[in-house]
Automatic annotation (TrEMBL):
GO biological process: rescue of stalled ribosome
InterPro entries listed in its UniProt record: Pep_chain_release_fac_I (IPR000352), Pep_chain_release_fac_I_sf (IPR045853)
UniProt family annotation: Belongs to the prokaryotic/mitochondrial release factor family.
SUPFAM superfamilies: Release factor
Domain of life, source organism: Bacteria
Keyword annotations from UniProtKB, A to Z: Hydrolase
Ranges annotated as biased composition (Basic residues): 107-138
PANTHER family: PEPTIDYL-TRNA HYDROLASE ARFB
Domain Prokaryotic-type class I peptide chain release factors: 22-38
Positions in coiled-coil regions: none
The protein's name: Aminoacyl-tRNA hydrolase
Length: 138
């Protein structure tokens, strides 16, 4: 079943490599015996994504993306392999999704009349405070 990123974009399973490895750290017998952690590898350049999306992904300054354009995600926060697999796929989805939509165009706004008045009043008040700190002439 392909990984759904949005309604129009999905990644086929054969482009995502999931490897089960042993989790690190303390945890007793379960950690030492069971390969419950997941290493996810996704090659951006070899993927079926649109070329524009690939460029944007490769331009991201994310430590999970190697110089070769491979996304490496390790998930080991859950006790079961299945939950770690879902967590890794979710992180990949979260990495790719913002690239699809781009930035929302900025609409310039104007300050309200009361905001302008408040700003000028604050400046005047601040200036008076500074003037009072000045030297007293005899």
């Amino acid at each position: 079943m392909p990984l759904e990123i949005s309604r129009n974009v999905s990644i086929p399973d054969n482009e995502i490599e999931l490897i089960a490895v042993r989790a690190q750290g303390a945890g007793g017998q379960n950690v030492n015996k069971v390969s419950s952690a997941i290493h996810l590898r996704f090659d951006i350049r070899a993927s079926s994504l649109h070329p524009g999306f690939k460029e944007k992904l490769l331009a991201l300054s994310d430590k999970r993306i190697t110089r070769d354009g491979i996304v490496v995600i390790k998930s080991q926060e859950h006790r079961t392999q299945e939950l770690n697999r879902e967590a890794a796929l979710s992180r990949l989805r979260q990495l790719i999704k913002p690239v699809l939509y781009g930035d929302k165009p900025r609409r310039p706004t104007k300050p309200t009349r009361s905001a302008k008045r408040k700003r000028v009043d604050q400046k005047t008040k601040h200036g008076q405070k500074k003037r009072l700190r000045g030297r007293i002439d005899d």
